[in-house]
Amino acid sequence: MFGRIAQRYDLANHLLSGGADFLWRRRAARIVEAWQPRRVLDLATGSGDLALAVQRRLPEAAITATDFSPEMLSVARRKGVRETVLADALRLPFEAESFDCVTVAFGLRNMSDWNLALREMARVLSPGGHLLVLDFSLPAGALRPAYRFYLHRCLPGLASIVTGQKTAYDYLGGSIEKFPSGNEMLSLIEKNGFAMASAQPLTGGIATIYTARKA
Question: pLDDT of 130-145, one tens digit each?
Fold first, then answer.
């Protein structure tokens, strides 16, 4: 599915989010910059947008971008991501304590086992290393019904025009509905090798940045 939409993935993201995805990744990159990591692993990098945002802010850092879609990694390399590795996030080909920071933007939600994925992230992090997860969430209050209407009724049709792949974006709405958010996500992170987890809702709660440190 991701291979089929790779060439128009960026265009769809930017249009369907109204450009908010630029702001979300910029916020995430600023957080990572404040940690000053030397070795960064960006999981489920897709077309590489977060890896590139971090690379611009930390030009001296060694940033490794991984994904299980070769088509997505090809796009990321063309855009300037320096180091890419084809890898399954549930079985990472890296030694323990290889990185100071692990990031994943809009990818944890798509992994088949969130607990295992988080434990793998903790395994490859150095002691005290940082985790950043950026993903969609459901806003609270009056915005939630309107967002759900857009997510299920409007977005798939618009996406099919841009990418020609309506089914991929039918999947998006369902995956967001099932994905834990808020306190549920903080609990999930902390029970899988992390501490001091915190959440920063973005754009009324449509997306959230979660951060934590390896316990």
Answer: 999 999 999 988 899 9
Inside any domain, residue 118: yes
Q: Which domain holds residue 112?
A: 19-141+180-214
Tokens of 117: 């994925």
Number of domains the chain is built from:
1
Alpha-carbon gap, residue 193 to 120, rounded angstroms: 9
Q: Which of 188, 208, 211, 190 is nearest to 115 (CA)?
A: 188
Structure tokens at 205: 């709660």
Q: Does residue 3 belong to any structural domain of this protein?
A: no
Which residues are registered as beta bridge partners of 83?
Answer: 64
> In the sheet where 125-136 sits, what is the strand order?
83-86, 62-67, 39-43, 99-105, 125-136, 207-214, 194-202
Question: pTM of the prediction?
Answer: 0.90
DSSP 107-135: -GGGSS-HHHHHHHHHHHEEEEEEEEEEE
**Which CATH number covers residue 117?**
3.40.50.150
Q: Dihedral of the CA atoms 10, 16, 20, 24 (nearest 10)? A: -60
For residue 215, give the DSSP letter.
-
Q: How far apart are CA 51 and CA 117, in angstroms?
A: 19
